[in-house]
From TrEMBL:
Pathway annotation from the record: Purine metabolism; AMP biosynthesis via salvage pathway; AMP from adenine: step 1/1
Keyword DNA-binding: no
Protein name: Adenine phosphoribosyltransferase
InterPro entries linked: Ade_phspho_trans, PRTase-like, PRTase_dom, UPRTase/APRTase
Pfam families for this protein: Pribosyltran
SUPFAM superfamilies noted in UniProt: PRTase-like
Organism (species): Novosphingobium mangrovi (ex Huang et al. 2023)
Gene encoding the protein: apt
Keywords: Cytoplasm, Glycosyltransferase, Purine salvage, Transferase
Length: 178
């Protein structure tokens, strides 16, 4: 399957999580064995091509795709977690949301200094969470220059924000106007 074949496997849910939002749901892609395998292969091919040493996934759906890619490539997987989920002292970063702030955490021993880390998540919207994850992984010693996504919502500008921060950004598909 190609990336074009995967696009129809994404379910659109209107007015979620609030009125006016058209939510792009990857659970239908994950639930399609051949589609999930193809998405994982396509992401893994790109991570391999850029010489990834470590795959990092952003909670929560980034864990699904990132862990599958890491397993396929036989690379370590580093979860970028929400607060209070790791049982060790953590590195943490606070970042701005549309209304308020949130925090991400990572195990500081999960990445060796200078390892090339590829960040994977299911969707790039405004880019705030992804930028915070990149900064956190860099603080942990990783070299982060690549971010991979299943879906890009280009009208929200997140991929462009990451590119402006010096990252190469790729997505398997995009949905304009959402």
């Amino acid at each position: 399957m190609t990336a074009d074949d995967l696009k129809p496997l994404i379910r659109a849910i209107p007015d979620f999580p609030k009125p006016g939002i058209l939510f792009r749901d990857v659970t239908t892609l994950i639930g399609h064995g051949a589609g999930f395998a193809a998405a994982t292969r396509l992401l893994a091919d790109r991570a391999r091509a850029v010489g990834a040493d470590v795959i990092a996934g952003i909670e929560a759906r980034g864990f699904i795709f990132g862990a599958a890619v890491a397993a396929r490539l036989e690379l370590p997987f580093v979860p970028v977690r929400k607060p209070g989920k790791l049982p060790v002292p953590v590195l943490a970063i606070d970042y701005a949301l549309e209304y308020g702030t949130d925090t991400l955490e990572v195990d500081p021993d999960a990445i060796a200094e200078g390892q090339k880390v590829v960040v994977i998540d299911d969707l790039i919207a405004t880019g705030g969470t992804a930028l915070a994850a990149v900064e956190l992984l860099r603080r942990a010693g990783g070299v982060v220059t690549e971010a991979l996504f299943v879906i890009d919502l280009p009208d929200l500008g997140g991929a462009d924000r990451l590119r402006a921060a010096g990252l190469t950004v790729e997505a398997l598909m995009d949905f304009e106007g959402d």
